[in-house]
Amino acid sequence: MTDVLDGVRDHYRTTGLTQRLKTALAALGPEDQRLTPQQLGALDQFHTRGLAATAELATLAGITAEMSVLDVGAGIGGPARFLAATYGCRVVGVDLSEPFVEAARYLTERAGLGRQVTFEVASALELPFGDRRFDLVLLQHVAMNIADRARLYREIRRVLRPGGRFATFDVVLNSGEPHYPAPWARTPAASFLLTAAATREAIEGAGFPALAWQDDTEAAKAWIAQLRASGPPPSPNLGVVMGPDFAQLAANLGRNLMEGRLGILTAVFEAASTNS
Ligand SMILES: C[S@@+](CC[C@H](N)C(=O)[O-])C[C@H]1O[C@@H](n2cnc3c(N)ncnc32)[C@H](O)[C@@H]1O
Predict the structure, then answer these.
(1) What is the number of the ligand 1 atom nearest to the C-alpha of 79?
(2) What is the pLDDT of residue 275?
(3) Is residue 124 in contact with ligand 1, taking CB distance under 6 Å?
(4) Is the minimum distance from the CB of 50 to ligand 1 under 6 angstroms?
(5) Residues of 215-224 as b/e, b for ≥16 C-beta within 10 angstroms?
(6) 101 lines ligand 1 (CB under 6 A)
């Protein structure tokens, strides 16, 4: 188990991330000027279709200001900040990567959201929270890094109150071997993709009937086509976070989607009150 987590940690390992972000963000304005989720969207939404995908998932999940939200595998915190700024809810993010959590805290202060959004270093397989603590759990582009899906979805179920919701936005295996390096894994050793059907089975097996189930592959392919047509990406972008090979990682995500090797799944589940 630890070996597997170490492999994933290595993939997201980076040094001097917060300092690199400070330097890159100087292009957007002085340090004391508040940054918005829209300004940060090209570098802090670490998943297919960026901010638009987070906004759609939030709508589908029915998020409200009163909800207590957990973002599992929160990255550098873009989705958590967007939810707090847009809906007024409180969000806790957890992530395996220490540098990502440090960067998430820095960006959250820069966005003036420190009272609403907090981050902790933790594994999704051992969430540092009591039972039934949250109304909504978000999982965006994280499950493909996790081998023990049964344990992942059980942990999420445990921290949700009965009737609470689990919203996921994931890369799934479609047909054939994916090309690597990919944005979530430079080699297959850190990649644990499942098909959409196997993902659904694992989630439902943890006591989560589905409320919404969408195949978003075509939308993702349209986004890839648009990116390819529009030339170099805006700056700063996720290259600041993942390093100079990010262009290659992103290009392989595009190839995998366009060649039908991978798909994209959006789904919302309810924590069944009988399985608590
Ligand atoms: C592709 S990024 C997505 C980040 C964020 N959800 C977003 O959409 O912007 C995947 C993240 O999952 C985290 N992660 C992977 N495995 C994890 C685990 N077992 N526990 C906690 N975080 C994990 C990684 O450190 C990384 O930050």
Answers:
(1) 9
(2) 43
(3) yes
(4) no
(5) ebbebbbebb
(6) no
Nearest to 140 by CA among 205, 79, 213: 79
d(CA 169, CA 215): 10
For residues 69 and 103, give the distance between their C-alpha atoms in angstroms, rounded to a whole number: 20
Q: What CA–CA distance (Å, rounded) separates 206 from 275?
A: 8
Tokens, residue 236: 């700063």
Provide the pLDDT for residue 81: 98
232-260 CB burial, b ≥16 within 10 A, e <16: eeeebbbbbbbeeebeebbbbbbebbeee
The crossing angle, in degrees rounded to 10, of helices 17-25 and 98-110 is 30
CA 68 to chain centre: 17
Taking only the tens place, the pLDDT of each residue in 15-57 is: 999 999 999 999 999 999 999 999 999 999 999 999 999 999 9
Query: Three-state SS across 83-147?
Result: HHHHHCCEEEEEECCHHHHHHHHHHHHHCCCCCCEEEEECCCCCCCCCCCCEEEEEEECCHHHCC
Q: Contact at 8 Å (CB) between 160 and 92? A: no
CA distance 87 to 114: 15
The type of residue at 240 is V
Q: Identify the segments of the chain with pLDDT beneath 50.
A: 275-276
- Residue 62 parent element (H or E): none
Query: Ligand 1 in contact with 78 (CB < 6 A)?
Result: yes
- How far from each other are the two terminal CA atoms of the chain, in whole angstroms? 26
Question: Could you give the C-alpha distances from 227 to 45, 52, 224, 263, in angstroms and in order?
Answer: 15, 14, 5, 18
Assess contact for 207 and 163: CB atoms under 8 A: no
Q: What is the pTM of this model?
A: 0.97
DSSP 259: T
